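Consider the following input, taken from an annotated entry for Mos1 transposase HTH domain-containing protein (Araneus ventricosus).
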Amino acid sequence: MFKTIADPADCEVRSVIRFLNAKNVKQAEIHRQLVEIYGENVMTDGMVRKWVRQFNDGRTNVHDEARSGRPSVVNDGLVAKVNEKIRENRRFTIRMLCDEFPQISKIVLHEIVTNR
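Applying the prediction step yields:
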C-alpha cells in the first residue's frame, strides 16, 4: 500500500496529470492513480478528463488562470482627489470625506487614506 498525501495543492495534482498524460497514460488510469495517492476527494473523473484535454490542446501552465473579479473603484484619479481634499483640511475625518465623495463607501475611503 502506498502512503497517501492529504490536501494536495491543485497545481500539484495538475502537474501529475500533465506528467502522466505526457507518458501517454490513459485518462481513466490517471484518475485511478490520483485517487490511490491523494484519496477519493482529489478530483472527479470529469475534471481529470478536462485537464487531459487542455494539456493535449497545448496548455502547459498548471496554475489557475487570473480571474477578473469585481472591478475596483480605486484608481489614481480618485486617490488624487482624496489627497487634495485632505490637503485642504488636515483635520479631516472619514465622515467628512464621505460627505465629499458620497458614491464611495466609508471602507474604501478608509483604505485610500491608510494605504495610499
